[in-house]
Amino acid sequence: xxxxxxxxxxxxxxxxxxxxxxxxxxxxxxxxxxxxxxxxxxxxxxxxxxxxxxxxxxxxxxxxxxxxxxxxxxxxxxxxxxxxxxxxxxxxxxxxxxxxxxxxxxxxxxxxxxxxxxxxxxxxxxxxxxxxxxxxxxxxxxxxxxxxxxxxxxxxxxxxxxxxxxxxxxxxxxxxxxxxxxxxxxxxxxxxxxxxxxxxxxxxxxxxxxxxxxxxxxxxxxxxxxxxxxxxxxxxxxxxxxxxxxxxxxxxxxxxxxxxxxxxxxxxxxxxxxxxxxxxxxxxxxxxxxxxxxxxxxxxxxxxxxxxxxxxxxxxxxxxxxxxxxxxxxxxxxxxxxxxxxxxxxxxxxxxxxxxxxxxxxxxxxxxxxxxxxxxxxxxxxxxxxxxxxxxxxxx
Length: 396
What we know:
Blueprint: E1 7-10, E2 17-20, E3 24-28, E4 35-40, E5 51-61, E6 75-86, H1 96-105, E7 109-114, E8 124-126, E9 136-147, E10 160-170, E11 181-187, E12 194-201, E13 205-207, E14 212-220, E15 226-239, E16 244-255, E17 266-273, E18 287-289, E19 318-330, E20 336-346, H2 353-380
Parallel strand pairs: 3-10, 13-20
Antiparallel strand pairs: 1-2, 2-4, 4-7, 5-6, 5-9, 8-9, 8-18, 9-10, 11-12, 12-14, 14-17, 15-16, 15-19, 19-20
């Protein structure tokens, strides 16, 4: 018999307990489970005449807590759902876990149900500087509090209990995926012909940990030569609450293989890249999936934000998107030719073969990154040493 996980947390004064059966809620095909929990008051007779409320709160932090001063706060909270647990207003359908907890805990256990709105953003962590006291990004928490009246939605801190949860998203259908393509051309002053660049992907949606083959085609009908090819996978973040945008490169490389590519020459190459959070280092501003476990590595690059309503304008919070950026470095004063090709990076389905492969890949990549950092620290404080072979003896 498999043991059922129960998450429990107590208020500071010990008068209120929160029980949840799960802390991760996954949206698939615009459907997501409701939050089913139990509010437990050991001394229920002391709460006669008072009210217990359960709230689902989304928190958005867009700045460091250390930089807050003179009443300025970089944290915003929004209550997306709230129910009155005690005295109960309506009787919702109970899960098996709720029924068992009510039988075990007694009359002080009261069930509640909270629901995510359709446009609820995903939980996203924005990596800050080492030692920051608060994490930036979008987080969720379930809050219980005791109020003195039916409209007392604040409650005293000592009579409140919060538990963090995570909302994520994955795509269940891979059928009929299109093969995205992007093209760009560049002409030059007082010269005939153009330099053409085309970038193509096999499909539009990739899972975390999957290899991404990038097909690059160059048609050089200009009088310039291509000196180098740069390929990068770029993460784009948009903070809707403060109207800010920025980008981070999560994988990159540069090659001169096949270069210089002179006038009249063509080149078709396929580059394979595998973006992974464990290999990105501690890059400030990198968007990651929020983690809950302290025992297991749950670090992933933030998944692409997908509008469940079909309208991208309905996306809120931290909007994450990805693109492949291919750059051709040209000779002389030709500058560069750049093409951007958007794609989606998403979670594999839980308990699937792709999910197991991702866990193994994260473990091996984290070990490689740790060895590399250890090697860097070992030689960081040493002087450069030049070793030369000894030729003739000093006597000669």
